Amino acid sequence: MKKAAFVGVFLLFISMNAVAQTTVWQNGFEDGWTGWSTDNGVWQIGAATSGPGACYEGSQCAGTVLDGNYPADTDSRLISYHIVLPTITAPEELHLQFRNWFLYSNDDYGQVQIAVWDGASWGGWISAGIGVVDTSAGWFLKDVDLTAYAGSTIRIAFYHTAD
Prior knowledge:
six-stranded antiparallel beta sheet, 12 strands, 0% helix
């Protein structure tokens, strides 16, 4: 069984309702690691040659081992550079949307996490939204509400854990 998780193009936007959206930040991986880092080294950026077989959009995406299975007993984050979120007022909301593909086994899973800058240091990682488990039926659109972090400076992490 192939075990992998991939992240494609994503954006952060302000939504006043289901129709009106304003993009405040957009990113992909066509420029490689520019601005991105990882801890514990499982994440890679490049062409998807296993898993979905191709990136959602463009020629590069991020994945937990691009050409095969992720290793057992790993915890790793793909971490963005800092993002300054705008201040909003009700009924506005901030959402992170991205495409992901995953094939997790057993108790393995993926989770979006947020770290907030308090002016002196980064706080600990906070899980945001619902994690992903099992298998996606293809590239899946994920939406994570980040309204609670409006006006903050944050980093976004795509957390992967395998037992």
